[in-house]
Recover the amino acids of this structure.
C-alpha cells in the first residue's frame, strides 16, 4: 500500500495502425501488467482502441467500438485500476468524429470524458471536429487534467486547468510523421515537450509506435513520466510496445508557475478568475 501522497502511474506505448481486435487485446494485457505492478492508473495513447489510421477507423462499426470500450471498463473493474484510454467515434448523429479520451475508475465506471480541441493532420482535420471544454477530474483524490496529442502544443490547455487545481497532466499522443520529419523532430528536440517547467505539474505522456498501413508514416514512441522539473522518472524507447511505471509524489507538484500567471499582471486576474470558473462549470459535460 503506497503512502497517501503517492500516485503510481503506468504508461502504455502501443502501435497506432492495427485492427481494433488487436488493440483491445494489447490494451487488456497492459492493464494486467500495470495492476500487477500495483499502479493506481494506466494511461494509453491517443485513440488506442480504434487506432489513428483514418482509412481504417472511419469504416469501423460503431457497435464494435462500444464493445471494445465496455471490455476495457470490465478489465479496469477486474484489475481494480483506473484506466485512461482513447477512441475516435461519432456522437449525437454528427457527421464528423470526436477524438475522445475516457477516464474509467477502478469500479469500471466512465467518470470523465474529453474531446480533443486542436486537430492535427489533414485526415483528422477532414474527419473530426473539436471539443469545447477543458478537462478536470480526480484520480485517487488528486486533481488531474489531460490533453490529446496536438493539444500539448498549446500550453494554455493545461496551464489553465493547473490554475484550477490540476497537479498532473495525462497526455494521450500519436505523434505520426514521415520518416524524414520524424528524424528531424527527434534531432531538433521537437518531440513532446514537458509541461512541468511552465506549470510545475507532473506530465505523463503515452505515445504510439509503428508505421501506417501504407508505410508512409511512423510514430515516434518515447513515452514518458516527467517530474515537475521536466526531468524524466521513466521513459520508453522509440520503437517497442511496452509499459513504463513510476511513483510520483504529488506533494512535489504545486502548480506555482500557473498560479503566479493567474495573479499577475493584475489586469488579467479577473479574466483568469472567470475562465477558471467556466472550467469548473463545464468539466462534467459529456462531449457530444
Amino acid at each position: 500500500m503506497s503512502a497517501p501522497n503517492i500516485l503510481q502511474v503506468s504508461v502504455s506505448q502501443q502501435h497506432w495502425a492495427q485492427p481494433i481486435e488487436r488493440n483491445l487485446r494489447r490494451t487488456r494485457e497492459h492493464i494486467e501488467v500495470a495492476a500487477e505492478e500495483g499502479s493506481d492508473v494506466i494511461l494509453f495513447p491517443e485513440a488506442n482502441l480504434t487506432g489513428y489510421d483514418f482509412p481504417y477507423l472511419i469504416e469501423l462499426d460503431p457497435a464494435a467500438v462500444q464493445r471494445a470500450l465496455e471490455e476495457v471498463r470490465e478489465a479496469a473493474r477486474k484489475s481494480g485500476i483506473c484506466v485512461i484510454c482513447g477512441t475516435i467515434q461519432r456522437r449525437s448523429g454528427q457527421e464528423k468524429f470526436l477524438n475522445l479520451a475516457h477516464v474509467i475508475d477502478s469500479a469500471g465506471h466512465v467518470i470523465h470524458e474529453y474531446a480533443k480541441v486542436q486537430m492535427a493532420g489533414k485526415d483528422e482535420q477532414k474527419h473530426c471536429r473539436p471539443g469545447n471544454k477543458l478537462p478536470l477530474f480526480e484520480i485517487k483524490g488528486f486533481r488531474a487534467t489531460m490533453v490529446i496529442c496536438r493539444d500539448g502544443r498549446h500550453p494554455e490547455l493545461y496551464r489553465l486547468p493547473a490554475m484550477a487545481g490540476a497537479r498532473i497532466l495525462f497526455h494521450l499522443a500519436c505523434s505520426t510523421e514521415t520518416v524524414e520529419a520524424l528524424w528531424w523532430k527527434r534531432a531538433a528536440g521537437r518531440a513532446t515537450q514537458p509541461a512541468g517547467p511552465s506549470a510545475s505539474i507532473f506530465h505523463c505522456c503515452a505515445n504510439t509506435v509503428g508505421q501506417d498501413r501504407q508505410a508512409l508514416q511512423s510514430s515516434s514512441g518515447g513515452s514518458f513520466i516527467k517530474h515537475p522539473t521536466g526531468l524524466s522518472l521513466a521513459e520508453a524507447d522509440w520503437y517497442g510496445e511496452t509499459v513504463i511505471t513510476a511513483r510520483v509524489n504529488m506533494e512535489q507538484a504545486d502548480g506555482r508557475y500557473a498560479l503566479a500567471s493567474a495573479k499577475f499582471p493584475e489586469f488579467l486576474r479577473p479574466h483568469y478568475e472567470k475562465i477558471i470558473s467556466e472550467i469548473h462549470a463545464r468539466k462534467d459535460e459529456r462531449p457530444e
Q: What stands out?
A: The domain at 6-282 is CATH 3.60.110.10 (Nitrilase/N-carbamoyl-D-aminoacid amidohydrolase). The mean pLDDT is 95. The CA atoms of residues 77 and 108 lie 5 Å apart. The chain has one domain: 6-282.
